[in-house]
Amino acid sequence: MAVGIDKLGFYTPSLALDLVELAKARGDEPDKYTIGIGQSVQTVVPNYEDVVTMGVNAAKEILTEDDLAKIEMLIFATESGIDNSKSAAVFAQELLGLSPFIRTIEMKQACYAGTYGLMQAKDFVTLHPDKKVLVIAGDIARYGLKTPGEVTQGAGAIAMVVSADPAIATINDDSVYMSRDVADFWRPVDSTTALVDGHLSTDVYKEMFLTLWQRYQEQTGHELADFAGFAFHLPYTKMGKKALDQIMDQADNQQQAFLREQLTASQVYNRQVGNLYTGSVYLALLSLLQQGQLTDGQRLGVFSYGSGAEAELFSLELVPGFDKAVAGQDVLAQLAQRQNVSVAEYEAIFQSQLFDSSKNQESDAPDGTGLCQFVGWQDGQRRYRFS
């Protein structure tokens, strides 16, 4: 029985910052950001957005009445949780109108948790083929103003419906994975911004990909020529190239050129959004599915990485008609409709987040958007609405 990704939705907030302008404001050469890092624009998060609103907005456009009736579990992967006890999944369950008779859980392991959630969903549906699982992977990458990580900020959420006989891709049973304690990225519980050793993180990312690729080949017998493309976790788009370059000598010149084109296709959306941690690799997948040169039955590689560190490499097989299943969402149009903000406006928005639950306060949420919004704190509780 085939189990995999049946639907795939994406959402990012409606404000954006041109990284050329940020580079000028920080006294850096724009090429450092746009070429060296590989980022052009980053999403800016207003104080009426959080992982719950982004996850709900990503999911609500792809869910049908049939989905709502058959979803038995909601897995919410994030490292930007809004409560140390109550899961984002519980908020999302009610806001999406899901049945009360389902399991809801939040998962955390840096940027990797979305993949763990996807694999748990696959296992559940394999045992319960008449049921579906909703997996949401959403985050806000927040490093602080004028920090080395500032250029790799961003935000957004991916929503995936996992089912039997999926419309997009089958998840193959070929995963290889590894974990080890590495101090490359972390966020203490008393901090609203992350800490990162960028060079170490890049080294560990590349090392884990190469190690898992070798292990994958040993266990499956597959070669690079068996793949029509890869979706990488992209904290910045150049990272995927660094990983793939390590194995390019295993392909002939024609295959190398093709894989580079496919890699570029997978980077289109992330380049315009920035880092969304748990959702990053699946935004790259959506970009590859919509912008790449793909046909039914092809195999795609997926490399998921989470600092700290944990990684997994597995493959998907595209099912007939996958292109129609992913054609409903015009991501480029969504990104183009964002409002550009100046560096000064971005800095003010960055500082306007409502982190203090001890005060009754309202966010800047506008009316009439039709979107799920965080409207503020009341008696220590978070309040949401569809405006």
From TrEMBL:
Q: Which residues form the Hydroxymethylglutaryl-coenzyme A synthase N-terminal domain?
A: 3-164
Per its record, what are the GO molecular function terms? hydroxymethylglutaryl-CoA synthase activity
Q: List residues binding (3S)-3-hydroxy-3-methylglutaryl-CoA.
A: Y143, K242, N275
Q: Name one GO biological process term.
A: acetyl-CoA metabolic process
What sequence ranges are listed for the domain Hydroxymethylglutaryl-coenzyme A synthase C-terminal? Answer: 257-352
Swiss-Prot/TrEMBL keywords: Transferase
* Active-site residues, Swiss-Prot/TrEMBL: E79, C111, H233
Q: Which family does the record claim for this protein?
A: Belongs to the thiolase-like superfamily. HMG-CoA synthase family.
What protein is this chain from? Answer: Hydroxymethylglutaryl-CoA synthase
Organism, per UniProt?
Fructobacillus pseudoficulneus
